[in-house]
Amino acid sequence: MDYECVVIGGGPGGYVAAIRLGQLGKKVALIEKNRVGGECLNYGCIPTKTIINAVKLAEKVKSMAGRGVNAQLSLNLKELKQWKNQVVTQLVRGVENLLKSNKVELIYGEASFVDTNTIQVKLKDGSTREIKTQNSVIATGSVPIELPGFPIDHTNILSNWDMLELEDIPSRLLVIGGGVVGMEFAFAFSKLGSKVTVVELMDQLLPGQDKEVSALLYESAISHGMEIYLKSKALSWTKENGTLKVKVFTQEGEVEKECDKILLSVGRKPYTKGLGLENIGVKTDEKGFIIVDDCLKTNIENIYAIGDVVRGPMLAHKASRQGVVVAEVIAGLSSRFDNVVIPDATFTDPEIASVGHTVESATKAGYEVIVGKFPFVALGRAVSVAETKGFVKIIAEKSSGVILGAQIVGANASDLISELSLAIEMGATLEDLSSTIHPHPTFPEALMEAAEAAQGKAIHVVNRPWRK
Amino acid sequence: MSYEFKLPDIGEGITEGEIIKWHVKEGDEVKEDQPLLEIMTDKVNAVIPSPVKGKVTKILAKEGEKVRVGQTLLLIEGVETAVSQPTETTQPIQAPQKEQKVVEQEAQRVLASPAVRKLARELGVDLSKIKGSGPAGRITESDVRAYAETLKSVQPQETKLIQKEALEERVPVRGIRRSVAEKMVKSAYTAPHVTHFDEIDATTLVKLREFFKNAAELKGLRLTYLPFIIKAVCAALKEFPYLNASFDQERNEIVLKKYYNIGIATAVEGGLVVPVVKDADKKNLFEIASEITRLTEAARQNKLTLSDVQGGTFSITNIGSIGGLFATPIINYPEVAILGVYKIYKKVVYTEGKIEPRDYMNVSLTFDHRVLDGAVAASFTNRLKQILEDEKLLLSLLF
């Protein structure tokens, strides 16, 4: 055997698994066909946040006009892109160095299973190499779903990758799909100056998210000048004199929208193409997800899978956690992927983060719930930094007070959610949260107040029983 | 789409049970309300009917397996559901869908931190078997370590067992046997047991029972000594409230009960159940006799309802009909005391200047030493003895 484990795919699942395997003294190789860091580091989480931060900062400065901060502002997309590329390059180098110092052999190429112990790699120079391994971890991630009639051509119809490479800001952008990716780009480009239209099939933005949260995002999108079509569907498109004309079925009938670019963001699907799973008989479900147990093992004894290729939300932090678990399982430790919750964060304006149950899902699951809500407008720190949009909502089981879930919408939501994730993993109750001292003046005080509100004892709002 | 049949909430705080028998097998067609399976909980047996009509395609739990409320037990195909395809010519029809009485809660989460869950895996401990000592029943690290210790002490040496196998028969512990085993362990390892012994002059008891026997027969009742003892016990309990109590560990409080529900340990096939005579202090001798008959019959035919076995405040175990001098009964937890009564026998005694044969009965009182001390137990037993030996006093209590 050449290796004790080969990890296929160097994204936030695969590279973490490889590093942890290296730490545990395993002889390990990581096969990556493009760049380590995967979608997340190169085209997703990291670069989009660089751009979102820049436009957010600009808007923030503008909002301080007449409040003591007056500035002349200009946004330069070219510079912004250079800065973004620097950030990505720095982080990719960092990952490569970590792999090296943990004695992971990094192989650039495309992997395909020959049998359960043999992987053929098509190297960058066109040659092939056959690798023998005891165990394999499939961490090949996902790719965007395409919409019939709207093939991604990288000129008119763009993927999230293409959005990051645009030379000019399109004056009119039509976004198909109002999910996380679609809405993050919609807000960013709206702030960069695009006139943005969003077409979403479902009856709310961010389908699956708490309805109250989604409604607040809708209002914010409208106030940013976006046009939002819910329960609507893009039907077809044509190009005339450089302008794209898109036929959209809406609740008011069929309309024709003109735009310069279309962003297609209707979701992602697991990516296992070319991997030769059929050669070894790894089982997938009807949607193409690889089926694994809580050890992340497939139906084949020595083949594991993690991240977007297995069921569950397609999120980098899920993949990373699974990367750690799978490495420890392979090294014979007692780890399992037994996390109770997987939090999520959406970098729109306002930011949205949630974890665990919503009121709706908890009720459906049979819980009798109590809910505590605290608006940022009642929080000293939020008022003093002019970030009063949004609220914290905490859902708990009525009989025990055990916290079941939370949604946060507002400034720093993505940083605030982790306290609640910890609370849920620990089995904490509302009383645990409300009795913990939170420093003043800070945003996390809102979590404490929401927990108090659920128990009818919030200090900074009038307590009223929660009603749907 | 398959209909997933989940173990419904049987009520009364029951969260799990053991499958005794499947009444259907894979491939069977079932009708609504047709019995699917029989389940035994720590309180009663229940037959669970099918809420739907269809074909059983898969059974997901075996007989003898412990299952939790909300767990999927079998799949039924061909169930008519509310999903219908609305077209231009037909109106969407709301197909009749049987409402399940109770909203099924998702498989109850075991409350334990990630580190505790990891520790449990390392020690080979099933967290769902542990009752957590933390807030909301959260399982702590020390709960897991303590449970792992108890596992160590009971784990048998497997290698030796294999050699012996031919000479031994291995009987799976399930059903009522398992329930008895678990309850006894819980009681014996939770409450520090002390047993107090005494003998009671049963001459009066024998006489009074003889006296009322015919009257009872006329009412179609079989009158044993037990109803007399129950009446005497109720009277004594009213004077010693700490014996009619339970111990609330969580809040560190003793709960004194102002009602007198007396459990009667009853042998049934394969084990023991404790049906309860409710408000025994308010029932007369014959009412108690009739209630005992009803309960023991129901117990033997496996027809006890939940309310028949709940709410006991004190228990009596009586193996006098079989024999023996004394025993040290185990408390019917979370009650705090149990009275054992044994066979009545003749012996020659010296009383008031003469030697005469009299009827005697041994009793033993096991009590929870966290709640009661020896002196109280002795005083209670003395009082019980006094009541049972004093004809006028006992008579005054019977009706």
From TrEMBL, chain A:
Protein name from the UniProt record: Dihydrolipoyl dehydrogenase
UniProt domain Pyridine nucleotide-disulphide oxidoreductase dimerisation: residue ranges: 342-451
Gene Ontology CC annotations of this record: cytoplasm
The keyword NAD appears for this protein: yes
Enzyme class: oxidoreductase
One GO BP: 2-oxoglutarate metabolic process
InterPro entries named among the record's database cross-references: Class-I_Pyr_Nuc-Dis_Oxidored, FAD/NAD-bd_sf, FAD/NAD-binding_dom, FAD/NAD-linked_Rdtase_dimer_sf, Lipoamide_DH, Pyr_nuc-diS_OxRdtase, Pyr_nucl-diS_OxRdtase_dimer, Pyr_OxRdtase_I_AS
Additional detail: The active site is a redox-active disulfide bond.
Annotated organism of origin: Candidatus Marsarchaeota G1 archaeon OSP_D
Keywords: Disulfide bond, FAD, Flavoprotein, NAD, Oxidoreductase, Redox-active center
PANTHER family linked: DIHYDROLIPOYL DEHYDROGENASE, MITOCHONDRIAL (PTHR22912:SF151), DISULFIDE OXIDOREDUCTASE (PTHR22912)
PROSITE patterns named in the record: PYRIDINE_REDOX_1
GO molecular function: dihydrolipoyl dehydrogenase (NADH) activity; flavin adenine dinucleotide binding
Cofactor details (free text): Binds 1 FAD per subunit.
E.C. no: 1.8.1.4
Catalysed reactions, semicolon-separated: N(6)-[(R)-dihydrolipoyl]-L-lysyl-[protein] + NAD(+) = N(6)-[(R)-lipoyl]-L-lysyl-[protein] + NADH + H(+)
Organism classification: Archaea, Candidatus Marsarchaeota, Candidatus Marsarchaeota group 1
Domain of life where this protein originates: Archaea
A family per Pfam: Pyr_redox_dim
Family membership: Belongs to the class-I pyridine nucleotide-disulfide oxidoreductase family.
